[in-house]
Write the structure tokens for this entry.
Amino acid sequence: MGDEAAFQRAFEAFSPEEQQRVATILQTLRGQQEAVGEEQAADGTAFVSQFEPLPQAIAAVAQGNLTQTVRMDVDGRPLEGEFLRSADIVNTMIQQLSIVDG
């Protein structure tokens, strides 16, 4: 609270033109902060959506369903990195179990 009061006193010492420039800069910074927050939230959603198919396929195997595999894309985007590697492992496991179950 003290920082805000000190800022307000300093702000009032500026000329009207300087106050307008400071207000514009603060508004721009707030907009950038919101945009970064939205981008991070979208990244988090994309991260979770890549993970979701793995436990679903594993749960299906645990229930004896060997027909469900992990899709290699999410929302039209191919899996990458560890998600791709994990999907390959799970799909290979399902394929091998299907051969044994035969």
Notes: The chain has two domains: 1-44, 52-102. The chain has a mean pLDDT of 77. Helices lie at 2-13, 16-51, 53-62, 81-101. Residues 52-102 form one domain.
